Amino acid sequence: TEEQGNALPEKKPQCVTEGVNMKQYMDDAFVIISGTILDYSGHLPVMNLPERIADIEISRIGDGSFKDSATLRSIVLPPTIKEIGCRAFEGCHELTSISVPGDLSHVGPSVFRNCRALRDVTIYDLELTADEYQAFKNAGKRSSRNRLVMVNLL
Question: Using an 8 Å Cβ cutoff, are 127 and 105 in contact?
């Protein structure tokens, strides 16, 4: 069921290494270094990304990390995410919704470029600069059903 696709499966990492101020994690879905997701090659259609994976706090979605994911339809990012890198979700043609709770401080350019199905974007506590607004270039078809919700909590 779709609900089962929500949770990341528990599995043993292929590689966890630690160095000075750095912790790496790799499995068949994620490559994470120092809290940044560098690559996602999984196949979940619906994802609630956890705050931690293999005891690494996830704080950044790296440049191009979810780029061209063919199956991702919906993702909820944890409040630990502070930045979304350049072109992080570019070309995710099936992506229809994303929710970014927490104190996001930066959205890189072209984050949602060519996400033609994207209809529902909820971002909390972020004021977009003109450059950051370009993150949404070509996101979603021009439609009255598109929704960009910017919620500023005081």
Answer: no
